[in-house]
Design goal:
Length: 258
């Protein structure tokens, strides 16, 4: 598809800097995910850190499809059955046993990167431990399948097989995406095999936000009343990790690591 942008070496270098900033911020936030903390406190810290590092939060004010005022925070904090786009409200308090997803985008010199980490709070259930681990494995197995000449479905099958083998379903209504000059760009990066949408050939210089989303129960999801937070329909756990990668001649480079 010709509408997928190929980034220059300079653009990728900027994304590498931004991605490193983002990874550093997520690691700092990880240490602050503790019982009694509010999601709003994490968001406040995320904002301070991103501005102090000469970057800005990509999600703040972001309005997909021209939606109203846009997203009201820098950080998405999604807990347990919440999948993505959890708003870091003051009354969203972290508890022992929670499975917390921190998702953030960083804009540096007009280029964006996007990443998500999961954090278990204190002692978490065996089920929570498992979905957190398998979701991360899905991401890395998917990353191993990214290379020039491969197609999106090669990535998707690696993710889908591993999730299913472990008894998890794959979210279908939310997908990864191209990223770079904007936070969301073509192509859609599905996490499950799709004959048509998955048939996009990868090329050197494409930059993608890979984000497998796997559910403990059914794949069905719904949008909560706040208009942002997506949750599992059956109330069971979701697992979600994300990295931004650049396709290179040998495979890919993870940009959102320290
Ligand atoms: N990381 C999120 C995604 O790829 C982007 C969230 S934008 C927000 O879907 F505005 F919803 F926060
Ligand atoms: Co994303």
């Amino acid at each position: 598809m010709s509408n997928i942008s190929i980034k220059s070496r300079e653009e990728i270098e900027i994304m590498r800097e931004g991605g490193r900033i983002l990874a550093g911020i997520l690691e700092k936030l990880r240490a602050e995910v503790k019982p009694g903390r509010s999601a709003q406190e994490l968001d406040k810290l995320a904002r301070e850190l991103v501005f102090s590092r000469g970057a800005r939060p990509s999600f703040l004010g972001y309005a997909p499809n021209g939606r109203g005022e846009g997203y009201p925070a820098a950080l998405c904090v999604s807990i347990n059955d919440e999948i993505v786009h959890g708003i870091p409200e003051k009354n969203k308090i972290i508890s022992e046993g929670d499975l917390v997803k921190l998702d953030m985008g960083v804009e540096r010199k007009k280029m964006h990167t996007d990443a998500t980490i999961m954090v278990g709070v204190g002692k978490i259930s065996v089920a929570a431990e498992k979905i957190m681990k398998v979701a991360e494995e899905c991401l890395y197995l998917g990353i191993d399948a990214i290379a020039p000449g491969k197609i999106i479905s090669d990535y998707a099958c690696a993710v889908e097989d591993h999730a299913k083998k472990n008894g998890f379903s794959i979210v279908r209504d939310l997908v990864g995406h191209g990223v770079g000059r904007s936070i969301h760009e073509p192509p859609q990066v599905l996490n499950y095999f799709h004959k048509k949408l998955g048939n996009v050939t990868l090329k050197v210089g494409m930059t993608l936000a890979l984000e497998p989303m796997i559910n403990e129960g059914g794949y069905e999801i719904y949008l909560a009343d706040d208009g942002w937070t997506y949750k599992t329909l059956d109330g069971k756990l979701n697992g979600h990790w994300e990295h931004t990668v650049a396709v290179t001649k040998d495979g890919c480079e993870i940009l959102t690591k320290i």
